[in-house]
Amino acid sequence: MKLDLHCHSTASDGKLTPLEVFRLAEEARLDYFSITDHDTVAGFQQLDVADSDVTLISGIELSTQWSGVGIHIVGLDFDPEHKSIKTMITHQRGVRESRAIAIDKKLAAHAMPGTLAGALTFCPDIGQVGRPHFAQFMVQQGFVKSEKQAFDRWLGNGKIGDVKSGWPDIEAGVAAIVDAGGIAVLAHPLRYKLTFSKLKRLATHFKEMGGQAIELVGYQVSPDKQKQLNKLAADLSLAASGGSDFHDPLWRWSQIGKLPELPSHVPAVWQLFKSQSNQ
Ligand code: AMP
Ligand code: MN
Ligand code: MN
Ligand code: MN
């Protein structure tokens, strides 16, 4: 089974429109594909691709927090019209707006004025604006040399522009997805730079609150780390998911459908999709 269950479009911080992204999934001859934009289903909802050979699964990537760490939860195969997911999306829009104002103030205090207005030239919707849009403006103004430098110095984990206090607790994120009939997936578990014992606590907690899957493939991981992650999934009976986290066709390391096979020692997340139980 070929799949890619984590990817972004212009509805959040991706560079391609939902349709362009879906065409790449078709070119890659995927069986299952999901657009998981940050805190929105607007991109997914624009698509009408029922006749395609690629099965499109509803998706979202929710921003949450746990123990002071920003954690991303991917939701798959939920009802995008369900009240609980709609309420969560409305909430996240408010958080993005107040967070953007806070980031603007912090950067202005460090001799970088006008960054919110600048970010809005890249993403006109203040309810959707994110740190990558600030980074794009900071590069344009010459405040930093690259988007990577913007994150390394100002916007990344623990830096002054990393304002995460408004995000809902991880429980609320998982509950919104599960209530809407979906599967909650712990996204890119190694990207939080947690010690393995802390990651195990996070994953255990995630499972207890109703999380069902964890991303096991999607980015370059050392064989040692991969083995640890695979064992964690087995110990906690979490299904395996995977996605490229595609944002930009120029990011060679993250292209749609270019993923290793899911490990087979735990069930694959697609086996939990509703379309499976109908067959
Ligand atoms: P936000 O949704 O506003 O919190 O922004 C998070 C997004 O910023 C991630 O999904 C990535 O697309 C991007 N991002 C996070 N860290 C970095 C980094 N170190 N370098 C470049 N982009 C990053
Ligand atoms: Mn992103
Ligand atoms: Mn993420
Ligand atoms: Mn993502």
Explain what the structure shows:
The chain has 279 residues and is α/β, with parallel strands linked by helices. The protein folds into two domains: 3-86 and 167-277, TIM Barrel (Alpha-Beta Barrel), CATH 3.20.20; 89-155, DNA polymerase, domain 1 (Orthogonal Bundle). 39% of the residues lie in helices and 13% in strands. The protein is built from ten helices and eight strands. The chain has helices at 18-27, 42-46, 83-108, 115-122, 131-141, 147-155, 170-179, 196-208, 223-236, 274-277, and strands spanning 3-4, 32-34, 55-57, 59-66, 69-76, 183-186, 213-217, 239-242. The strands form two sheets. It has a five-stranded mixed β-sheet. A three-stranded parallel β-sheet has the order 1-2-3, with no helix packed on it. The longest helix is centred in the middle third of the chain and has 26 residues, at 83-108.
